Amino acid sequence: MRLTEDEMWQRLQAAAREALTRAYCPYSNYPVGAAGMTDEGRTVVGANVENAAYGVTLCAECSMVSELHRVGGGSLRAVVCVDRDGAVITPCGRCRQLLYEHRGPELEVLTREGALTIDEMLPLAFGPRDLGLDVGPDAD
Question: Where is the CMP/dCMP-type deaminase domain positioned along the sequence (predicted)?
Fold first, then answer.
């Protein structure tokens, strides 16, 4: 059974809400959950993990991409992040870069304004090709 677009976003939001219950955020008390669907239809999740040295805190998207690779890799086609209330939030700049490098051909990110492609969220992104590499989603 193929999911409709609305069903996909609802499932991903539910998965992100569940993931945020496992966030480690004793400093900010701001749990975040992320969920993504791969091009193959698998769901991967992540939650933020803080550190007393704030600069090395991991956003939920970071742990989600780690999970993506832990369970076999692939490319992301849809991502959503939620805050402690389950409301949709937009990935920070660092995480947009991370999502860009692990995107499928048409990765969409759900925002408060609706679904946007990663290219709309991060125009003129820096990627592997800028380093002279032919790897990842930029590979032909």
Answer: 7-129
81 among annotated binding-site residues:
no
CA distance 92 to 123: 14
Are 113 and 44 in contact by the 8 Å Cβ rule? The answer is: no
Task: Identify whether 61 is a catalytic site residue.
Answer: yes
* Residue 130: per-residue pLDDT: 86
Q: Is 21 within 8 Å of 35 (Cβ atoms)?
A: no
The response to whether 51 counts as a known ligand-binding position is yes
**What pLDDT does 132 receive?**
87
Report if pTM > 0.70.
yes
62 in a labelled binding site: no
Amino acid at 103: R
**Among 5, 7, 61, 108, which one carries the catalytic annotation?**
61
Local structure of 3: helix, strand or coil: coil
